[in-house]
Structure formats: C-alpha cells, structure tokens
Design brief:
Jelly Rolls, 49% strand, six-stranded antiparallel β-sheet, 83 strands, globular, 1 helix, Methylamine Dehydrogenase, Chain H, 0% helix
C-alpha cells in the first residue's frame, strides 16, 4: 500500500472508556488544560490568580452571598473586594448528623451507654423499668445495619433498685460492662467481659470492689488508657475514701490507691486522663463540695485532694484533660425564682492545673458556659476544643411532661453546635452520663429518645399526668465534624446553611435560622394598680428578632395561659423565661393578649421600649394594666387566621430551592423533607414542623431504595437523589395555613443510578449532571438517564468537590479532590481535564470561577492570564494507539505534521511510543522562533507582525521506528523562564497529519511468543 495521509483534527475530545489499544482514531487518551472554543481547535484554559489567603486556613466551602465571595469553615469569612481582605462574620461548625436505633421494647429505657469496637460492632447497655423495678441489659449490634448479634441480655443487679447505672468500655477485644450488683444487701462494683468478636463469649460477673458505696447518681466512673481500664469509686474500705484502680486486658484488678477524706463522700464521679495523669473528679452531695485527685498510670499519687467548688447543688460532672490541665464541666441544679416546677439547670466550668510534686492543684476561676440545660454526655475533644451534649427540659407543671425536651451539642465557650431530638429528648439525666466516643472526625453518643407518646386515662390514678405518657428508647447520635456536610441556599435575603441545625447568614451575623426553642413557661398572677376589665384573659409570648436585612423572625408562640380577674385585681403580672439558647443579640420578647371582650391576640408590650432578651439571667416580668381599648389596633400575633407557627430548622444534610421555598433533608430522619412557607418580597425563610414531606424508602420500588441524599430543582420538578435511585416531586405547595397543597407524591424515575454528593450536582442545558458511584451521569429534562462521563472514567474514584456552569461559555467544570478538574463543553460534547487545580470547593464569582484550596489559599480565574498563582498553565495531549493496519497489523510510519497557531513563547516536547509499549522511544524538543520584536508595517494592518516570522506554527516530525504495529503521539507544552517573558497563551492546536502505509501481513512475532 502506498503512502497515505491520515488527518486527525482535534474535534473528538478525551476517551478514557475505550480499551487504550482501541481508542477510536482522533480521540485522546490524555487531554490537559485545553478548552474548546471552536470546533477542532484546542485552546489553553485561563489561569487562576491568588486572592488574599484566608485568615485561619480552615475554610472548606466556597459560595457567594449577594454576589459577594463567602468562605465557610470553622468561621464564615466574607471577602471585601475594595480592601482585598477577608472579614470574619462569626463561628460555624460543619456537622453531619446521623441517627440510628439501639434499643426499643414495650418497656421504658431510662439510661444508656454504648461503645463501638474496632470491628464495627456496638455494645449498648441500658436500664429498663417495669412497674418500678429496674433491670440492667446489654445488646450487641452491627453499628451499620443495627442487626442484633447478641441480646438483649440481663446484667445482674441484685435487688432491682436503681443504684446508678451500667457503663460499657472497649478493652482489647472485649466489651467491659461495669455495674452495681447488690449481693446480700451490699453493693458490689462488678464487671462482665463480652467478646466483641463473638458476643456469645461472656465471663462471669467479678468484683472490682466489694466495699463500694453506691449512689443513684453514679458514684464511680472509668476510662480506658492503653491496655487498662482505670476506675475510681466511692468506698469505705479502711475509712471513707476515694479509690482508684485498674482492670487490665488480662482481667486482673490492681490494688487500689486510696485518698482518705472522712468528710468527702463521692455521689457523682468523673474520670479522665492525659499523657501523665489519671484524674478522678467527684461531687460530695452531703458536703456540697467538689474535689479532684490524680494518679499516674501505675496508680502512684500525683495530685492530692483539691477542692474546685466549695458549695452548691450539682447534678452531673464531666471532665477533660490535656497537658496537665484538668477541665471540669458541671451541671448546676437551678429553678426559676418564680416557679419551682420549671427546671432551669445550667452548666459551668473550672480548671485545675496539676502540680509537679504531690500537692494540691492550682484551681482556676469558675465561669458559666450555657444556661437552661443540663449535661447529657461526657466531654470529648475534637481539634483541641472541648464539646459535650446537653439536655434542655423545659416547662414542667406538676408531673406533666416537658414541652420541648431537646438535646444541644455545645462547645466549652457555650456555642451551640447541633440540635438533636427536638421535643423528643429524654430530659435531664440523673443516673450518670453516656460516653462520647470519638472515632476519626466523628463522635458517637447514645441518648434517650421518646419512642412512644400516648394519652393517659387520668382515672388510672396517675397524679398530674397531664394526659400524656412518654416512653423513651435508646438511639445513637453520630456527629461527624466533616466539611462535606455543608450545603447552602440563598433565599429570603439570607444565606441558609446546613449543619447541626439550619443556620442563616444575613451579611452581618451567622446564627440559628429562626429560634431553637419558644418561650414555653409563661406564668400569670393577678395584682392591683390598673383598670383592666374583670374577665378572662389569655396570654402568649414569642421571641422576635430583626436581621440586618430587615427580616423579622418570630418564634413559635408559647402555650396559651389563662387567668380570670376578679375581686379587686385589675392587673396581671406576666413572667417568662429569657432565651439563653441562641446565637442572636437584641432578641425581643413580645407579649400578646386575648380577652373575652376582645377575642383577638393583640400586642401588649411596648414597641418603642420592648423587653430585651438577656442570656445571663433567668426570667423577665411584665405588669399588664392596659384596658382592651388601649391595645386595639396593635399588631396581631402572626399566627392569627390559622397561619402555621414558625420553628427553627433541624439538623440537615442538603438544602435547595424549589417552588420559591427552601427545602432540606432532615438529618435525623433522612426519609423526611422539610420545606418553608412560600417566600415573598420582604419575608425571611419561615420553616415549620407542620410543613414536612415523607418519602418512603420503598416508594415506587419493590425493595428499599434507602434514605434521601441530595436535592436539586429542574424545571417544574424537585429532583430527589438517593444512593442508587432518583425520584421527583412536582406541583405547588400549601398556603401559610397549611391548606391547598398540590404537591405530588414522590414519583420514581430510576434505580439504575443515584448520587450521595450534593456538591456534584449542576444544572446545564440538557438537564442535571451529577456524580454517582458509577461516574458522571446526566438526568435529562425528559427524565432519561445517560452515562455522560465515560470519557473521564479514570477519575471516577475521585470525589467531586464542586460542579459549576461557567457564565458566557458552554462549559461545565467539576473540581475533584485529586487536584484536577473535569471540563465538559455541552455544545461540542467534548471532555478535557485541568491539572494543578487543588480546589476543595469553588463557586462563580464575578462571572468566573473562584476556588479555595486545602491549605487556605483562595484563587480567581483571570481571563487572558495563563498562570496558576505564578505557575505556567501548560497544554498537553496524547493520542490513542494508532494502528491503521488493524489491531495487530503491520504498518510503516514515516512522519507526521503538527499544525497550530503561535501566540507567545513556548517549547513543545514531542514523545512517540511504539508497539503498545507506553514508554516513549522518541523525543523531540520543538523551539518555535515566531517570537521577535515587530516592526511597523508600511502596508497597514497585517495578520502577522511585519518583519518577523508569521504566527502559523507547523512542524514535521520523522518517525524513529518506521516499521511498527502501532504508535502513539504525545505533545507537551513547555515554558522556558529564561526567555524573560511571563507565560502566555502559548499556542492553539488544530490537528495532526500522519503519513503512513500498510505493510503486507502482520507484525513479525518472536518464536518465544508463538505456540501450537
């Protein structure tokens, strides 16, 4: 066959799906830093210039708010274009919350603890109450599937009296369950060991201490350090003392070390450790004093009895230690001064610095951390910050259930990090604190959850039952301190952020969206001094806050409370709680009144002199003297006319916008969608727990398709992504009263593919592109699915960190966690890849791409510039294997031509590989001389500089091995800094022209490679 010319124009793009030996002629096996501006032409991408570095380097998510660049991490940073600085707008902690069930039965669980073994099995211990008798039980499950492996199994506890509670630890390959066992009317501190590998292997109960003084508030505690479980307990062996011992991994109990103190009786105990000391911190309820001691790991005393609190009333204590400093976090028992039925515990902290020699430690200054809550877990540390779970209990009148029992995850500075089990929490803990187990970036905490709420027949003799019985079960909350949890949506003049609860940022403050709780304990008492009509009145209160955009946020109203004035009483004293659980300042408390003569809730409190919130005080008081006529025409409560009340959004994983509403996936129940009221001009996002949408796990399928993972709007549909399935909802939602909803039921699209990556979803011309575990797919506007990412399949193992539609282009860019980006042009249907783009997140800012890197750098695309923070952007490509004589044919390869257009100084490295061996056997360095100073043209404008070489770049490269089976060409742009000019556009590339011929037969094969 004579010589022939084979043309390869650059119109086919990347192909990583085909067998590398059979990539179709004209496609590339590698194509870097090129974009497609004209058919068949490769043009260099723009570079990225550095913006000022982020102050603390912790930002992992980038977005815009009001077109202003905004970076989010442990703080929210807003970029000031004029001053070229980042402005700190407040703290934010990304949290990905997930919840699973641990224990459920027909009985009430009143206490719990859990620990996960390295193999993933979880052991949960709990106290179960049946007709006043307490049973200790444990169960072993798979922590991922919640499949029971062993149990529930009884733990011996003697008489069945509630004496503290069992606790579980992981020591080597065993769960160590420690508990109080009453034997012959004597409390023993005992343990059993349960194999974490084979939970049917259980040791007999054995003593840790036989002379042990138990308490219902848990007078012992422990911690695993190395191969030992260290325990401290209250004892009377040899006189009243605090004893410390350890249980080794071979189940040997060490001789205890005792701290004798005749007046100190430990009724609450906390044990923690640092690299040097084991600390035992305890509360003596008889003496109302708190003390701490310490030993080293061999049980030698290192700190003698040190008092950290001289008086008070303490419900729980937890501790954390690092570098010789012990931090003590304790729950103070408190009640509002105006109503002893309303619990208002609060949390304080202090420190003790351990001594160098055996003396008392140095005590710091006590201070309050957060009010209105009690402790609900032991303390834990992530990124050098101390955290703990707290419990809000709320109003209790007599024996009635609390209105808003809820858990809040709090840091040592009092910042609320997450909200859990809103209105379904287990209330204050009275028999010890569950373990907070840190595994990587996640902390695992068992907690009580109301799994049965039912009405009570009051004739059964239950005093003050309030008509409701609440039974609790045991759940596991996992708080993952992961940046991947961040999702934002801009609507209602706020940037709404996902996390441990729904956040809102107004350009000035980042805080909880709406309010965590409403004022749930309004109290009324009659008085004199006014002129109110003697009739019946009802009062309700709300918390109200105005953001920097003028949006007014209202909490849910308090429960209406009635009073009837009679006799000489013509005024009402109204008292209620301040809001301590908030990140907001200048919160107002608004009071509304209804009367028999005027049956509308009108505002009573002053507009010009409102009741302002205080986070450091318990309660407010207001004396109402106004007659009905004085308040007629004042503002009505916003729930008038049946408008549903507003609440703060829950912990959520993904947010999006649809039907002019904010939508989110509830992190605690990922089968549940929340959506806001419809947002109109001048109103903020208003969430309500009455506006939710359940998406069944098996909707439209014969088996479960799992929980929801991501959300995205497309046209008139809300697209719901699960891991391996896609659904949609359409229609319009309800009005503000909850009526007239026309939302469809979830409509099944496919179970072929889905997504768990909210950051990978991007709307483009043909539909929604997204990353699945099968690569990049397209959900078309006709709801068909297509594997669109086959040409970039080699990057399927990387995680997409952001996906953008680039304005004024037809480009889609998906940044990856391997420091590259996939670039797709939907006009040409071609893919290429960008190298050296270490984006952990990116967004569109001023119509170009901006991104932040893992080390705190911020960068912005600069059209017409071709450096990434000073490093040259360089194009490169590699063809597939070229085999014009068939896959195993024999050909003669003579030479090839390369055609391009010169723009700025550069060099080209040309590599040629042969016979399916990737290692190049041929290298040429091409040094174009098109660059020279131009002289003025006497003929007017010319297409090339007059007096210098033309800007056409054309090369002929001869083959080193002509007779071959196949060959592959790779071209890499190089930049030579010695030229003394900055990196520029380099060149565009138009195509290759190969001159070759087909030889007869096939390529000769060595005898050693033949058979038969």
């Amino acid at each position: 066959m004579p010589k022939q010319s084979f043309n390869i124009n650059f119109a086919e793009g990347l192909d990583q799906k085909s067998d590398p030996k059979q990539i179709p002629f004209g496609r590339f096996s590698k194509l870097e830093n090129s974009v497609f501006t004209k058919a068949g032409l490769l043009t260099k991408r723009n570079g990225f210039a550095a913006l000022p570095a982020l102050p603390n380097g912790s930002s992992t998510y980038l977005t815009t708010f009001n077109s202003n660049l905004t970076a989010i991490g442990s703080t929210l940073e807003a970029f000031s274009e004029g001053s070229q600085t980042w402005l700190n707008k407040g703290s934010y902690q990304p949290i990905d919350l997930s919840v699973s069930q641990l224990a459920r039965s027909a009985l009430n669980q009143t206490q719990c603890d859990s620990v996960i073994a390295p193999n993933g099995n979880i052991c949960t211990v709990y106290t179960e109450i049946n007709n006043g008798t307490a049973s200790y039980k444990y169960v072993v499950q798979d922590s991922t599937t919640q499949q029971n492996i062993s149990g529930p199994t009884l733990i011996p506890n003697g008489s069945g009296a509630v004496t503290g509670s069992p606790r579980v630890f992981i020591l080597g390959a065993y769960y160590i369950i420690v508990f109080t066992n009453v034997i012959s009317a004597v409390s023993h501190l005992q343990y059993i060991a349960v194999s974490s590998v084979n939970p049917t292997v259980v040791t007999a109960a054995a003593d840790i201490a036989a002379a042990y003084v138990s308490a219902t508030t848990l007078s012992w505690d422990g911690i695993v350090v190395g191969q030992n479980l260290y325990l401290a307990y209250n004892s009377t062996s040899g006189g009243q003392n605090i004893s410390l011992t350890y249980l080794s991994s071979s189940f040997v109990v060490a001789t205890p070390t005792t701290f004798i103190n005749a007046s100190a009786i430990a009724t609450i105990m906390s044990v923690t450790a640092d690299a040097h000391n084991i600390y035992a911190t305890f509360w003596d309820s008889a003496g109302s004093t708190g003390h701490a001691v310490a030993v080293d790991q061999s049980l030698s005393k290192t700190m003698s009895l040190t008092s950290w609190l001289g008086s008070g009333s303490i419900a729980n204590v937890t501790t954390s230690a690092a570098n010789g400093v012990l931090t003590i976090v304790y729950e103070n028992i408190n009640a509002y001064s105006y109503d002893s039925n309303i619990g208002s515990n609060f949390i304080s902290q202090n420190t003790i610095t351990a001594p160098v020699t055996l003396t008392t430690g140095t005590v710091g200054t006590a201070g309050n951390v957060v009010r209105s809550v009690g402790l609900a877990s032991k303390a834990f540390v992530i990124n050098s910050t101390i955290y703990f779970l707290t419990a809000y209990d709320g109003k209790k009148t007599g024996g009635a259930a609390a209105f808003q029992p809820t858990y809040f995850l709090v840091d040592i500075s009092g910042n609320i990090i997450a909200k859990l089990a809103y209105q379904n929490g287990g209330g204050y803990l009275t028999v010890g604190l569950p373990t907070a187990q840190v595994i990587g970036t996640a902390v695992h905490i068992a907690y009580l959850f109301k799994d049965l709420i039912t009405s009570v027949n009051k004739t059964q003799g239950v005093a003050n039952a309030g008509g409701v019985y609440s039974q609790t079960g045991v759940n596991l909350g996992v708080f993952n301190y992961s940046s991947s949890a961040i999702s934002t949506s801009e609507i209602g003049n706020n940037l709404n952020l996902s996390g441990g609860y729904l956040y809102a940022y107004d350009g000035q403050t980042i805080a909880e969206q709406n309010f965590h709780i409403y004022p749930d304990s309004i109290e009324l008492s009659p008085t004199t001094g006014g002129s109110m009509t003697l009739q019946q009145y009802f009062y309700q209160a709300i918390y109200q806050w105005t953001d920097a955009k003028g949006n007014i946020f209202n909490s849910a109203p308090s429960i209406p409370v009635a009073i009837t004035l009679s006799g000489g009483n013509d005024s009402v004293i109204v008292t209620g709680p301040y809001l301590r659980l908030t990140g907001k300042s200048n919160v107002k408390i608004i009071l509304y009144r209804w009367s028999t003569g005027q049956p509308l809730y009108y505002q009573v409190t002053s507009i010009t002199a409102p009741i302002l919130n205080s986070k450091t005080s318990d309660s407010w008081s207001y004396t109402d003297k106004a007659v009905d006529g004085d308040i007629t025409g004042n503002g009505e409560i916003y729930t008038a006319g049946g408008t549903v009340e507003d609440v703060g959004g829950p912990a959520c994983t993904a947010t999006t916008l649809f039907d002019t509403r904010l939508w989110l996936i509830d992190a605690e129940d990922r089968n549940l969608l929340w959506y806001s009221k419809q947002i109109i001009e001048g109103t903020p996002v208003e969430m309500s727990d009455l506006f939710t949408f359940y998406v069944a796990p098996n909707a439209g399928a014969t088996a479960s398709t799992g929980p929801m993972q991501c959300l995205a709007p497309m046209d008139d549909k809300l697209i719901i992504f699960k891991k391996d399935a896609i659904y949609y909802i359409n229609g319009s939602g309800p009005d503000n009263t909850g009526a007239n909803s026309q939302y469809s039921q979830p409509i099944f699209i496919t179970s072929t593919v889905g997504s768990v990556n909210q950051n990978s979803i991007v709307l483009m011309l043909n539909g929604l592109m997204f990353q699945s575990d099968k690569g990049v797919w397209l959900l078309g506007r006709d709801l068909s699915t297509q594997y669109i990412g086959a040409p970039v399949e080699n990057s399927n193992t990387a995680t997409t960190t952001s996906a953008l539609t680039i304005p004024q282009t037809t480009q889609i860019r998906m940044t990856l966690d391997n420091k590259t980006a996939n670039h797709y042009d939907y006009f040409f249907g071609q893919w290429s890849q960008f190298s050296n783009l270490p984006a952990v997140s990116s967004t569109i800012y001023q119509d170009v791409q901006a991104y932040i890197s893992s080390y705190g750098g911020a960068f912005k695309e600069t059209p017409g510039s071709y450096t990434d923070n000073g490093n040259a952007v360089l194009q490169s490509f590699a063809t597939g294997w070229i085999n014009i004589a068939a896959l195993q044919g024999f050909e003669r390869f003579y030479w090839f031509y390369l055609l391009g257009q010169y723009f700025s100084p550069h060099k080209l490295q040309v590599l040629v590989s042969y016979n399916y061996v990737d290692s190049p056997l041929h290298q040429s360095i091409l040094d174009p001389q098109n660059f020279s100073s131009a002289t003025a043209s006497p003929f007017g404008d010319q297409p090339a500089p007059f007096g210098s070489p033309v800007d056409l770049e054309q090369w002929k490269i001869h083959a080193k091995i002509q007779k071959c089976q196949s060959f592959k060409i790779q071209v890499n742009e190089l930049f030579d800094p010695s030229l003394g000019v900055p990196p520029g556009a380099g060149l565009t590339l138009s195509g290759l022209n190969i001159v070759a011929s087909v030889k007869r037969g096939t390529r000769p094969i060595k005898a050693a490679q033949t058979a038969g």
